[in-house]
Write a structure and sequence with these properties.
The protein is an alpha/beta fold. It folds into two domains: 2-116 and 302-312, ATPase, nucleotide binding domain (Nucleotidyltransferase, domain 5), CATH 3.30.420.40; 126-297, 2-Layer Sandwich (Nucleotidyltransferase, domain 5), CATH 3.30.420. The chain is built from eleven helices and 13 strands. The strands form three sheets. The protein has a five-stranded mixed β-sheet with strand order 3-2-1-4-8. Strands 11-10-9-12-13 form a five-stranded mixed β-sheet, sandwiched between helices. Strand 2 (12-18) and strand 3 form a beta hairpin. The longest helix has 25 residues, at 230-254. The termini are close together. The model has no long low-confidence stretch (mean pLDDT 94). Bound molecules: zinc ion. Zinc ion (ZN) binds at residues 162, 172, 174, 176, 179, 181.
Length: 313
């Protein structure tokens, strides 16, 4: 079965053509252009599809799967108010694309697609039940139960980023205080990190934190931590600890003890994972303690596309 998988992110659209063995045989990407009206973004998606269809006969493509950063009406293929695509509102994206290309289209949430990708091709391959976390601008999760995505009653399950870990914590995009995302989302995390880096005059990132703070990203912290910078290591470790609080709660709630950590911040490596494990083990109920397994995801940026392509299986 030849399929197309598309991963729509806030800044770029990634798309791949997969062959019968679900291997990527061609790929492309375009800027999302989320700052323009939605037709612009949809035409970027169309350009990706057009480019990939140049490699095959269109009639051989059995479906297009699309991961979208927002809530989805799965049955009708409608996207609802994706927060990182401000001009969208309610968009019947499956209809729009399938009419244009005459190919069946299925949508799902982007974090669900990433978890599904890991389930089929990555770190979740041998695992029936796990939670796949995607740490980026937002913090999303796909809950895999029995090898399938758990969508919840209306399709909105997996909003891991909006679990409250501190009722008096910083204000989150969703309007609540102290959500996981308000600590671990890239912008929130760096906003909290900058004053700490500025306070460490001997730290490796001191100069940049003073002169050019907006250029700093989590990957800079992890590189500095690897070179022995203790402030960077502590920031990553504390971020991990906060994530671990919510992971322990999720494990207690779901009786799922495997968590795969993917997305940009996950590349921060050891200090982050040490923090996660330390706080999750300390908080999870004793019955889960021995089986708690926290692993890096394996597919990196391909997880969303591969998962989206496998929506058609
Ligand atoms: Zn929130």
């Amino acid at each position: 079965m030849i399929t197309i998988g598309i991963d729509i992110g806030g800044s770029s659209i990634k798309a791949a053509l997969t062959d019968a063995g679900q291997r990527i045989v061609a790929r492309t990407r375009r800027p999302t252009m989320a700052e323009y009206e939605r037709e612009r973004t949809i035409s970027q998606i169309d350009e990706c599809i057009g480019e990939l269809l140049a490699h095959v006969e269109a009639r051989d493509v059995e479906g297009i799967g699309v991961g979208v950063p927002g809530a989805i009406d799965l049955e009708n293929g409608v996207v609802y108010y994706p927060p990182n695509l401000p001009g969208w509102g309610e968009v019947p994206l499956a209809d729009i694309l399938s009419r244009k290309w005459d190919i069946p289209v299925r949508l799902d949430n982007d974090a669900n697609c990433a978890a599904l990708g890991e389930a089929h091709f990555g770190a979740g391959r041998q695992r029936e039940h796990f939670v796949g976390l995607t740490l980026g601008t937002g913090v999303g999760a796909g809950i895999i139960i029995g090898g399938r995505i758990y969508h919840g009653q209306r399709g909105f399950a997996g909003e891991f980023g909006h679990i409250t870990i501190n009722s008096d914590g910083p204000l989150c995009n969703c309007g609540n205080h102290g959500c996981v995302e308000a600590y671990v989302g890239i912008h929130y995390m760096m906003r909290e990190a900058i004053p700490l880096l500025r306070a460490d005059m001997n730290g490796l990132l001191y100069q940049r934190a003073i002169a050019n703070p907006e250029s700093l990203m989590p990957v800079d912290l992890s590189e500095a931590a690897q070179q022995g910078d203790t402030t960077s290591r502590d920031i990553l470790r504390d971020t991990g600890k906060r994530l671990g609080i919510a992971i322990a709660s999720a494990a207690n709630l779901l009786d799922i003890t495997t968590f795969l950590i993917g997305g940009g911040i996950a590349a921060a490596g050891d200090p982050l994972f040490e923090g996660i494990i330390e706080s999750a083990i300390a908080r999870v109920l004793k019955v889960h303690r021995d089986s708690l397994t926290i692993l890096p995801a394996e597919l990196g940026n391909d997880a969303g596309m591969l998962g989206a392509a496998s929506l058609m299986l």
